[in-house]
Structure to design on (220 residues):
């Protein structure tokens, strides 16, 4: 009798424990999903990539907006706005260099195609043509009549013998026109066609005749 009463006294407690265990087990998936990390070693499933665009739509981004391709680029990388390139040869350059003749205070003298007086230096050599005007100071005051390349031969204008004009390669690799074998130059202070301000300067620089000879008379 005593044993039966003891069992009955413990029964409610046992039933309460069993019920609580079942309740916890029922709710454990929710609780576990809320507070625990994914199972170690599980592979995360990534969303499938969108289907590739048809070959004809390759110019469209995923948003459908057209891709604007950049316009022509010049070598510097700046967009080409259609303006002419200032470094491009002009039509005058394409015609080549002409050595012509004009009347001046020194008589008939050799000039370039724009009427600028041509000079020679007694320090140079005509056979073979050699220029000793190499320093920056000299080249600033006396500018060589240069050509585009070896094929750009100067032409003889009216009054100039074709055999008197020629060219040679300078030490810097550029080509310079000659007259009578002499390398020819412009003088920086001659600002107008026919100016002869460099005549006899330093006893070295002289205007050239149409035949390529040194003119020694002084300008009046």
């Amino acid at each position: 009798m005593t044993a039966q009463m003891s069992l009955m006294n413990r029964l409610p407690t046992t039933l309460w424990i069993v019920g609580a265990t079942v309740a916890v087990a029922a709710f454990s998936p929710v609780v576990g999903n809320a507070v625990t990390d994914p199972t170690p070693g599980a592979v995360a499933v990534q969303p499938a990539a969108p289907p590739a665009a048809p070959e004809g739509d390759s110019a469209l981004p995923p948003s459908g907006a057209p891709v604007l391709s950049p316009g022509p680029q010049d070598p510097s990388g700046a967009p080409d706005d259609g303006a002419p390139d200032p470094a491009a040869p002009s039509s005058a350059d394409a015609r080549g260099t002409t050595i012509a003749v004009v009347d001046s205070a020194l008589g008939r003298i050799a000039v370039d195609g724009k009427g600028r007086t041509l000079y020679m230096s007694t320090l140079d050599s005509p056979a073979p043509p050699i220029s000793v005007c190499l320093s920056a100071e000299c080249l600033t005051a006396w500018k060589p009549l240069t050509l585009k390349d070896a094929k750009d031969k100067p032409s003889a204008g009216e009054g100039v013998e074709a055999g008197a004009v020629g060219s040679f390669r300078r030490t810097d690799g550029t080509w310079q026109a000659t007259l009578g074998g002499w390398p020819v130059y412009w003088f920086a202070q001659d600002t107008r066609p026919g100016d002869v301000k460099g005549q006899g300067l330093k006893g070295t620089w002289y205007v050239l005749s149409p035949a390529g000879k040194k003119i020694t008379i002084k300008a009046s």
